[in-house]
Structure formats: C-alpha cells, structure tokens
Amino acid sequence: MQEVIVNLHMHTRYSDGSGRHQDIAKAAFAAGVDVVIVTDHNVLVNGFEGYYKEKNKKILMLIGEEVHDQARDPQKNHLLVFGAARELASFAVDPQLLIDQVRSAGGLSFLAHPDDPAAPLFKETDISWVDWSVQNYTGIELWNALSELKTVVPTKLQAIFYALFPSFVASQPIPATLARWDELLSNGSRVVAIGGSDAHALHMKMGLLSRVIFPYEFHFRTVNTHVFTSEALSGDANKDRKLIYDALAEGHCFVGYDLSAPTKNFRFTAQGKDASVSMGDEIPAKGGVTLQAKLPSMAEIRLLKDGQVIQTWKNKNSCMHTTTEPGVYRVEAYRTYLGKLRGWIYSNPIYVR
Ligand SMILES: [Zn+2]
Ligand SMILES: [Zn+2]
Q: Which of 42, 46, 49, 52 could disulfide-pair with 25, CB 3.0 to 4.6 Å?
C-alpha cells in the first residue's frame, strides 16, 4: 500500500471559484500534495484531468463535480461526485436518483458539508444535507474547511481576524456531523469519511481590507484526505485515477489536519486470528482482535467503539487495544496548536463483525 495525500473539493472559474486549473496545480506543487480533485458546481469540466509537472515534481489532477438542485428553495443537499464517466447534474432534482445514477456510471458519491450553517454576514445560507432517507452513497465529507469557517464568523471583527490569520479557523469537524456519522455507522451502514477544503480562493473586500481569503495553497496545507492505494502510483493518469477511486470506495483513507503537524504515516490496523486489516476493512471478532494505531508524532489518541470513546491515551504516538467485541472502531487524535486542542486525525473505521 502507498499513502497518497489528496486534497479534494475545490472550485475554479467554471463555477464560483476565482482561480484556474493551472493555479490549482501551482498551489498543489507549493503545498506538497500528491493529488487534487476539482469539483465545480454542476459541471463536469473536460480537458484538465491528468498529471501536471514542474521541475522534478508532479501532481495528478482529477476532475469530479459538486451537484445540487439549483431550483430548490432553500438550497440544500450538495453531493460530491468522483469518477463518474458522464455529466450527472440533470439528476439533481432527486438526490436518491442522483446517487443511483452516479453508482451506475461507475462513480462515487459523498454527501458534501452535511452540516453547513448560515453565515448571514456574507449572505451565505445554510446548505446542509437534509434528505437523510438516501441510501447507497459512498460516504460523507466529515470535515469541510469552509463550513467550519462559517461557524466562527458571526461578527465583522471575527471575519477580519480569521481572514488575516486563517490558521486559527480549523479546530475539528462540526460535532453534529461526527455524531451523524457515528449514528449511520452504528446502524450497520458502511460510510466512508473524507475531508474536503471547499476551496474557492475568493476575493474579499471589507473596508480597506482587500485580499484573497483562503487561497488554494493554504487549503492544501490544512484538511487533507490521506489515501492508501493498493499499489504505488505509476504516473499513468488513467491507471492511478482508478487506484485512488478504488481506495476511496473502500474507505482506505483517513482525514488529516496537516497544518498543525504532518499526519503522513498515521496507521490504524487490526490483527485477528487469521487476518490483518486496515481502515475501511472488516475483520471477524472470533478469536480476538488487536487494534493498533501508530502516529507520526505525539498526540492525544482516542479509540471509539460505536461512537463512544472507550480508551484515551495522552502524549503517545502509538496505542493498542485487544477486544473480542464486535463493533465499529475508529481513532481520533488531537494536538494542541495555536493555544488550543484541535482535531488532528480522524481514521476511517475498522468493522469488527
Ligand atoms: Zn457545496
Ligand atoms: Zn463546494
């Protein structure tokens, strides 16, 4: 398995972002991510997918889209679509039909920013996911950097502060989204969690202050999805695209907040009597299972079973827990950054059955 740093969910001038695909590639080189997945609103943009090279570096740009029903009032239910071979925005009127069409087109679907509060100061409305009867989607966007920004800017003064010091914004996924994920997992669903930036690189003008807030490069250094591909990327865009989407479909990934400290090399595995598995996989409980997490640096580590914290380790870079109890196990890690304990790593679960 190879760990690939993926930044996903971003917008260009083809929808409401300010940059071009070339700007995104440049920002990806600077930030050091391996793959970006661009998702403009309601348009599958052709002609930009592939490897981009600069000096001895290369990044893979994949193109998906973010689909929603533009006629709906109020606006809700944004769906991230990856790897579908065709334009699917025309199915947006019915979220379940859309999800089914994505699947039949060979694509993956993730409920975008499931809890996305209003930010009246910026005339931004609440665009949460509301149609929770849907089924057969791949997963949810557990941590959306832009939704989180909307939670911290009730006043102009706060907006100016965070525009100038964006590193202070992110602290963890919205708690309601985490609770929702645990609820879905406890009901027996397999729901893959990803982290998205929702980068727009918007130009903001407020009095004398005029700047690009949250440029692409900043986003690419913050909330990333670290994906474990079954083999090393080859440099062939078509082959590597499939490796990445296959890994995402299986939940072979975790969400890492790389700004506070690099999350690369985090591992969460389980060893059973006859099997050894990783995030996103299932393992039989019979005969006992040893769950193990390894972190690239010291943190507070929490092990959760069916949404409840069952063990906490402070100031550790590894931990171990043995169990014979079936359940959905996942790991969260927290680190202090800029004077505050912040979420750092959110693993996908291991399903002990
Ligand atoms: Zn959206
Ligand atoms: Zn978006």
A: 52
